[in-house]
Amino acid sequence: MIMSSLQASGSGQVGRRTLLKATTATAGAIAAAAAFAELETPAEAAAGFVKGVDVSWVPQMEARGFSWKNASGQKQDLLTILQGYGIAAVRLRTFVNPSSSPTDGHCGINEVAAFAKRVKAAGMSIMLDYMFGDTWNSVGVQNPPAAWKNMSYSQMLAAMSAYVKQTMTVMKNNDVLPTWVQIGNETNSGICRPVGSVSNPAQMTGLFNAAYTQVKAVSPNSTVCIHLAQPQKYDVMTTFFSRYAAGGGKWDMSVFSSYGSADVAPGIVANMRKISDAYGKPFLQSEFGGRVDRASSTRAALVAYTKALKAEGGQGIFYWEPECMTPFTGYGMGAWDSATNRPTVIMDGFTQA
């Protein structure tokens, strides 16, 4: 994906993500191994294609009086509006020891579980996104929680295991076990750096595997995902996955973030498939977004990514925080009109591909 770290200004607004400077990777082709023949064909995957959103800001927006209208101008529960566009899954992030900032904090596991109960009651599937930090971690930032900062590798390994076991148990006790679990967010450079840096692959792999093991111990049927950003940079993906796989890294699915324009979508999705095929894993796009002030272009990009994913056998696409509006946040890549509280034409992209 192309996401820069989200950094809040003093006013509590979140800075806009860096737009993708699209350059399609030109790495040499990887031969498809016969051992992967049992994976779904593109046509089979497209039949069960998941359309999803990350709407983790909703509880804090609602607490501050925000509400949403449908395209006809009628006030409705946001999840109901989203279902009208074919949205069937919701991704929710969780921080370890978050602050009370409405935009850059909250999302502790108890709050997440409470919102997940609403999602499940609406008949939608859940993706849990572990940030493994007290606030944002993304492609350029992978800071451990403050309480883990000075830990040795062995101490952090124990903390990781205990944390994932405890938080997954909260989800289980609330009867909201997730369909998918991302162990880390945009982890191109590793997790909990510097201890789990990609430049120290043995420790990085150990931390990921500790998380994987605890997810499966509590929820054997959850699909555990490794999440990378900027799939146009094929060499970066190769560096991560080659080191992770060589060290015995465990994962069930590869998921990616990408915020490119319509013209580059096919090449970027082709990279997603190529790197996923190389390790025999299914894949989906767990983050997409585009400028709300260029709604027609963003709609076209959403359609292009969706069509490319279906053609390449991708299993779904998630829009990152489409519900956001000002003045809650200055993030400019949602899909709602802040003046009318109605969805923009961006959301129509979900029904046009």
How would you characterize the overall build of this protein?
GO terms for molecular function: arabinogalactan endo-1,4-beta-galactosidase activity; glucosidase activity. This is Arabinogalactan endo-beta-1,4-galactanase. Keywords: Glycosidase, Hydrolase. The protein is of the alpha/beta class. The protein contains nine helices and twelve strands. An eight-stranded parallel beta barrel has the order 1-4-5-6-9-10-11-12, surrounded by four helices. Strands 2-3 form a two-stranded antiparallel sheet. Strands 7-8 form a two-stranded antiparallel ribbon. Helix 7 (234-246) links the parallel strand 9 and strand 10 (253-257). The radius of gyration is 19 Å and the shape is globular.
Features:
single chain, 353 residues, alpha/beta, TIM Barrel, eight-stranded parallel β-barrel, two-stranded antiparallel ribbon, 12 strands, 33% helix, disordered N terminus, glucosidase activity, EC 3.2.1.89
How are the SSEs ordered, and which strands pair?
Blueprint: H1 42-47, E1 50-54, H2 58-63, E2 68-69, E3 75-76, H3 78-83, E4 89-94, H4 109-121, E5 125-130, H5 153-173, E6 180-183, E7 190-191, E8 196-197, H6 201-218, E9 223-229, H7 234-246, E10 253-257, H8 265-278, E11 283-288, H9 295-312, E12 316-320
Parallel strand pairs: 1-4, 1-12, 4-5, 5-6, 6-9, 9-10, 10-11, 11-12
Antiparallel strand pairs: 2-3, 7-8
Helix pairs in contact: 5-6, 8-9
